[in-house]
Each structure stands twice: as C-alpha cells, then as structure tokens.
Amino acid sequence: MAMGVVLLWPKDAHAYAWMVRHEYSACVQCHADPSGGGLLTSYGRAQSETLLRTHYGKPPEEDEEESTYGNFAWGLWKGDPKDMLLFGADVRELYYAQSTKNAPNVSKFILMQADAQAQLHVDRFRANASLGYAEQGALPASLTRNPDKNLVSRTHWLGVELDEDKKMMIRAGRLNLPFGIRSIEHTLWARSVTRTDTNSAQQDGLAFSYNGGKLRTEVMAVLGNLQLRPYQYHEYGYSGYVEYTPKPKLAVGVSSLVTHADLDIQTQTPMWRQAHGFFGRYAPARWVVLGLEQDLVINSQPGSAAQPHNNIAGTVGYLNADFEPLQGVHLMATLEDQQNDFSRGGFSWAAWAGAVWFFLPHADVRADVIYQDVTTNGSTHTGITTFLAQAQVFL
Amino acid sequence: MAPGDADAKLGGSAGTATFHAKATPGDLAIDGTTNEVAVADDGTNVTVTVQLGNVTTGIGLRDRHTKKYLEVTKFGSASLQVPRAQLNFNGGTGDANGALTIHGTTRQTPFHYTATKNGTSFTVKGSTHIKLTDFGIEIPSYVGVTVKNDVDVDVSFTAVDA
Fold first, then answer.
1. Rounded alpha-carbon distances, angstroms, from residue A39 to A89, A159, A286
2. Is any Cβ of chain A less than 8 angstroms from the Cβ of B28?
3. What is each CA distance from A302 to A236, A261, A264, A321, in whole angstroms?
C-alpha cells in the first residue's frame, strides 16, 4: 500500500478544477480533451500565463505587448493561431517519504512523468496522441512489457467535431474515463477506487462530448484497455458524467460507470464494477474554491454455492478547499472518506495539507503532507503518513 | 405623472451596464460590467450613456481585448436615446425603440424595460439584443476562442426627477 500511494501519484498535468474561480467551469477552451486535463490549446496556454502563475513587478500597460511566455517552450514557437498543431511535454520529479505503522520508513526520488503530447487538427478532424516514459508504474498504459522503465501512451484518439460551434465531438481511441472531477490529485481514493484516474486508468472506447455553456457532458462506451493482456482483463461498459453550471462559479454534476470484465485485474475473478455519484465545485470568492465528490461503489463477483453472488457496496469521496491568497500560490486542504464494504463496516479517512506555487511560466513546485487512517478487515487500523515534494516543468 | 409628461424630467448617475456574450468553443460565457451609467433628459428624449473605459470582464487581459475591439479610445461611450413619448412614466413594463449608438454607429434598436416608481425616482431595468457587426465591431477572436456575433445587453439605473 505504501508504494502504491506513490506509484499512483499524479502524472497528468494541467487538470485544475479550481479554474472555476475564473468562471472557467468547462475545460474545452483550454484543453484538447473536451473534458479537461492534458494537452493545452493556445488559449489554454494564454490562460496559463495570465491566470496561473505568479507575476512579478507592475501589471502590464494597456498598450503593452502581451506576454508570449505561455507559448510552446516559453515562446520559442508562437504556435499556430488556428491550433492546427498542438504540442506539449511534461517532466515531473517527485520526492516522497512515507511512514507506516509497523513498517519500515521509505523515501525515494522518482521520475513521475516524462510525456510528450501532440494534436493535429484539420477542418473538423483531430488526431491526438501522447508518448512518454515511465520509470516505475503506469503498467496499464505501457506499450512495452517490462516490469519497469516502459514506454507509455496514456491517451491516443481520433476525433470529429459535429458542429461548427465545436460544442459536440465524437472521439475514438484510448481516453481518460469521463467520471467525477478531473483533477491532478489522482491518488485520491475517489479516483483510485473508481479506477477513473488520469495516470494509467484510461480505456479504449468511443465517447460523445457536449459543451454548451451551462451544460457539459461526456459519455463513453468502454471497450477495454487494449494495452492490457490477456484480453480477459478487458472491461466493457460505459462511463459518463453530466455537469450543470447554474451560476458562473458553481458547477454540479453526476457520474455513472458500469463495466464488466471476464477477469478483473485486481481480484482475478469475473467482475461487474459500478460507481455512481455526485460532484460539485464552487468558488464563493476568487480566493477560495470548494470541491466535493461522493460515489457509491458496487463490485459484484461470483460467490460460492451458498452465496451465488458476492455484491460488495461501499462509498468513497472527498471534500477539498483550494485557497489562492496570491496569484500562483495555492494552499489546499482535503478530507477523504472510504468505506469499502458497508456490510463489514470499517471506515477509512485521510487528510491532506498541500501547497503549490506556479512560480514561473511552465514551472511549478508542490508539497503535500497526507495522513491516512486505513481500516482493513473491518477493524484493523493502519496509520500512514506521507510527505511529497514535486517539481514540474512543461514546454 | 402621465406618460410623456413634458414636465417630468429625469436625471441620474447610479447604475450598472452589463453585456453577456458567448464564445466558441463550448459557449464560454463572457460578461462585462461597468457602473459608469448616466441618465439625461432634455424634455424630448431620455438618453442613457454608458462609459466604456472601465468595463471589466473578470480577467485583466480580457478587459484589454474588450476595450481594444470596442475602440474605446475613439468611442469611449455607448448611448441609447429614447423619445419621452415612448416611455411610460407610471411604472411597469414596456417595449420601446431607441437610437442605440455603439462604436460610433447608431441604429434604431428595440428594447424591453421595467420601471418601478419610488416616490420621485424610478428604478429602471432595460435589456436589448445586438449584433456586433451591426455596429461595425470586429468579431473578437483570441487564439482560437471567438466571440459570437449576438450579444445581450442589460442596463439598470436609478433616475430621479430633475
């Protein structure tokens, strides 16, 4: 479990749900993925430069030329005004130290992410792909078959816009599952338990997305993780969300996921997986954003002769607050909850305290302290304290 | 006070003007607001003037772009001039036509209003719909995000008997 926390640590950059504080409740303007995260559009790069990082000195004059530091490689390439070509690359290094009750302390440096992404956009058609290197983990996204040090492709897809306003798009390929709040903290239990994180939980399938002002949605027919062998591990089903923005800084939504695998990769049994929940984001003031997600999780496996079906229902969720006292400086607090099996009891919780500073164009540093009280077998408590420090640079 | 009463002149400088635009992709909502609203009445026409130099949209860079496309250095204000005869000074709701001037271009524009009489003052809320190109305004576009031609405008103000 100790290593699992780290190996699942954020690898997909640029998924900031707290952008709702700037009335950007939707993600489609800034990201190639219509549901957010990952490769930035030119507009996303401009907003990254304008809104994300700390600025120094006096504000720009009215007629002063706009900064181009947000462009690819700090302006080395100004980009393409029509976004026919998008490029991105991220490198993230992590230091972690973990203390677990009755276990040796662990500390290590890990190259968490080294990915490049690109998109070609011609008329209404898009071709998008990422390619990277994973020193450890990310095995479900691996193209090579080593125990570590693999080439990975987390997402690759073809898409077509269905209307001139680019509200609707159909995509086919390996996609981030549309479910819940898409954020960079993908080790949250809400992400790992539902298997909807942006690290390596992508699946292949067909997705329809709609972004129309106050309403946005994406629904995906899941056809399995084709990078996984053998094929019995492939999951089939659907995943989707609907989000409504009644006010510019308030977004609320629901998610649903149902999949089946002949052989579940974790339990090694046939499995029906379900996750259904609600989520919301709210910025009561520019300097604070509240996020909430709570999901019901039901896993159904074959049982025994005495009990033909083994249905395990539980819940997982979190509540977080992001404070931005100064542009580019974020202080975060998160509470997580998890109960794997209502019938057996055993409640787990976690508390995070973190800070991130976008101190320069294309660069940020982050530190988190996480305490987890994990209950197993209904009654055994294990306390785990983790310290994480990260540095990220993207082109 | 009877409709179109020539003795009931109005004036005031307390109000808010807001435009509501959308941009593709994804119908991004862009709202701009200013509090620099003034009302004048010459006995024939009531004129509402909105100063555009301090319109805010919530993002500094977007404020600059808004003022650039409106060319506020040349056309620093927008105004709506309405014949008093079209207005109901007893309060209530109504529809009228006025000469709307934006970006140096004037067009007869229908609008809807609600007026609430409070003693010697009126609280007025008005709304209209415009197309940017009708007023010679270049369609704003910024690195792939393009504002739609159709924009809603709301103005509210308090006018007092002058």
1. 8, 15, 25
2. yes
3. 17, 12, 12, 40
Q: Under an 8 A CB cutoff, do B67 and A41 touch?
A: no
Q: How far is residue B156's CA from residue B125's CA, in Å, rounded to a whole number?
A: 4
If you write DSSP's letter for every residue of A169-236 in order, what string do you get?
EEEEEEE----S---S-TTSHHHHHHT--SSS--EEEEEEEEEETTEEEEEEEEEE-TTSSSGGG-EE
What is the count of residue pairs from A and B with beta carbons less than 8 Å apart? Answer: 67
DSSP A50: I
A128 SS3 class: strand
The ipTM value here is: 0.83
Q: Do A51 and B59 touch (CB under 8 A)?
A: yes
Burial class (CB in 10 A: 0-12, 13-18, 19+), A102: exposed
Name the residue type at position A142: S
> Pick from A263, A191, A273, A267: which is nearest to A238 by CA?
A273
Cα-Cα-Cα-Cα torsion A174, A179, A180, A181, nearest 10 degrees, comes to: 20
Alpha helices in chain A (DSSP H): 2-7, 42-47, 72-75, 189-194
Q: Which of B18, B20, B28, B56 to mutate to test the interface with A (most CBs of A within 10 A)?
A: B28
Q: How far apart are CA A155 and CA A201, in angstroms?
A: 10
**Using CB atoms and an 8 Å cut-off, which of residues 66-125 of chain B contact chain A?**
67
Residue in the structure block whose two tokens are 């659907």: A238
- Between CA A114 and CA A392 the distance in angstroms is 10
Model's pTM, two decimal places? 0.90
Separation of alpha carbons B52 and A169, rounded Å: 37
Say yes or no for a CB contact (<8 Å) between A211 and B26.
Answer: yes
Radius of gyration of chain A (CA): 21
One digit per residue, the tens of pLDDT, for chain A of length 395 reads: 333 444 444 344 577 888 999 988 899 999 999 999 999 999 999 999 899 999 998 776 666 667 788 888 888 887 777 889 999 999 999 999 999 988 899 999 999 889 999 999 999 999 999 999 999 889 999 999 999 999 999 999 999 999 999 999 999 999 999 999 998 887 899 999 999 999 999 999 999 999 998 999 999 999 999 998 899 999 999 999 999 999 999 999 999 999 999 999 988 999 999 999 999 999 999 999 999 999 999 999 987 776 666 899 999 999 999 999 999 999 999 999 999 999 888 899 999 999 999 999 999 999 999 999 999 877 889 999 999 999 999 99
For residue A317, give both structure tokens. Answer: 């969720």
Strand partners, A315: A296, A339
Helices (H), B33-150: 60-70
A155 interface with B at CB cutoff 8 Å: no
Subunit contact A81:B25, Cβ cutoff 8 A: no
Q: Given CB atoms, is A81 within the 8 Å cutoff of chain B?
A: yes
B28 with A81: Cβ contact below 8 A? no
